[in-house]
Amino acid sequence: MAAPNSQLPAVSGNPNIVPKKEDEEEQDAFAIERERLARECKAIEEKYLKEEAVRFKKYEADMRQELIETYFSDKDIFGDKIFEETGIDGIKAARYAGTESYADPIAYLQKKEAFAKSAANTSTDILLQNLS
């Protein structure tokens, strides 16, 4: 009667126990190591994504604050007040649109200077009329 796997040597005289090949053992070791590395990579990736989400939320909050301070404040691009007077019930009045200084700063300055010159001329004319 021949052993079941007559081509492979028997272990300890028992014909039913056949030793694993070294290649299979190495493949098993590589598979275990590959699974361990995959778990580590997944854990590192999850940690990175959580940190990235926190950084993004901080960046988003900072940008929101900067936009609110810039575009929804009562100052123009040069730091001057946009609103010239406050009317009934706290309603503020402005001569120019609040975004005009951001859209075209040069034209905004020219308009502002032209108005300042005309206002100065008007006030001196009124003073001269009162003195006469």
TrEMBL record:
<feature type="region of interest" description="Disordered">
    <location>
        <begin position="1"/>
        <end position="26"/>
    </location>
</feature>
<feature type="compositionally biased region" description="Polar residues">
    <location>
        <begin position="1"/>
        <end position="15"/>
    </location>
</feature>
<protein>
    <submittedName>
        <fullName>Uncharacterized protein</fullName>
    </submittedName>
</protein>
